[in-house]
């Protein structure tokens, strides 16, 4: 790797995975992160968001995953006591090569890692089936959990679709991190297809179990008599 591509990046370890194109609101209240955000605003630069591998969001000692996404600050609301509410949007993936502790907040030597491979013939061939899987997943999610996620315009660009699916999936953060860490669009889509097929089976089972409970007269409440 050529070190000339590396950039110095402030790092915000969080218990969430940020994908390119994803909107992420944040409430900034710790002094170190108020300083970090102010520095980013002053220098008109992004910061990096990485899922926490070990440690906690609040306090010291959080260790981030190596693959994250840069966050662009698009709006800031300042509160009277110095806290901030900010809106960010995910921009580009990166890979951390080094993590530094020399400032009040984490910094890292990061290499940009754009998500490529969306123009391949294979990726374009997956758009139709993946769109259908996503719509089916959303319908089942509503029936099973009452969790309605409405997407008015499902994209037909492979890269945009792959990222949308990754953002939409209701799965644990480590699984989302594995999606973010896929080397290209084709690998990301293949991993998402496996998850969508698995989740469909799980949601079908939940829906069937709920139907059987209601048919059998089980409402979930115990009689006091």
List descriptors.
225 residues, alpha+beta, Archaeosine Trna-guanine Transglycosylase, Chain: A, domain 4, Methane Monooxygenase Hydroxylase, Chain G, domain 1, 2 domains, 5 helices
Detailed description of the structure:
A 5-stranded mixed β-barrel has the order 1-3-5-6-7. Residues 218-225 have low confidence and may be disordered. The protein has 225 residues and is α+β, with helices and mostly antiparallel strands. The longest helix is centred in the last third of the chain and has 31 residues, at 185-215. α2 runs parallel beside α5 (185-215). 27% of the residues are buried. The protein folds into 2 domains: 3-112, Archaeosine Trna-guanine Transglycosylase, Chain: A, domain 4 (Roll), CATH 2.30.130; 121-215, Methane Monooxygenase Hydroxylase, Chain G, domain 1 (Up-down Bundle). Helices cover 39% and strands 26% of the residues. The termini are far apart.
């Amino acid at each position: 790797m050529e070190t000339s591509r590396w950039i110095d990046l402030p790092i915000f370890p969080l218990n969430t995975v940020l994908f390119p194109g994803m909107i992420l609101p944040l409430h900034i209240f710790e002094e170190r992160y108020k300083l970090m955000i102010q520095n980013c605003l002053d220098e008109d630069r992004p910061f990096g968001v990485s899922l926490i591998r070990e440690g906690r969001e609040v306090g010291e000692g959080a260790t981030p995953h190596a693959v994250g996404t840069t966050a662009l600050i698009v709006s800031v609301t300042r509160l009277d006591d110095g806290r901030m509410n900010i809106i960010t949007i995910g921009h580009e993936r990166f890979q951390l090569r080094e993590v530094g502790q020399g400032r009040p907040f984490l910094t890292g030597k990061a290499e940009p890692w754009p998500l490529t491979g969306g123009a391949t013939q294979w990726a374009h061939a997956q758009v139709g089936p993946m769109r259908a899987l996503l719509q089916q997943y959303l319908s089942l999610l509503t029936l099973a959990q009452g969790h309605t996620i409405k997407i008015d315009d499902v994209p037909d660009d492979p890269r945009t679709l792959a990222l949308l699916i990754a953002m939409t999936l209701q799965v644990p953060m480590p699984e989302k991190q594995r999606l973010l860490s896929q080397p290209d669009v084709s690998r990301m889509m293949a991993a998402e297809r496996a998850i969508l097929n698995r989740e469909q089976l799980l949601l079908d089972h939940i829906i069937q179990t709920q139907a059987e409970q209601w048919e059998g007269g089980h409402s979930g409440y115990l009689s006091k008599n």
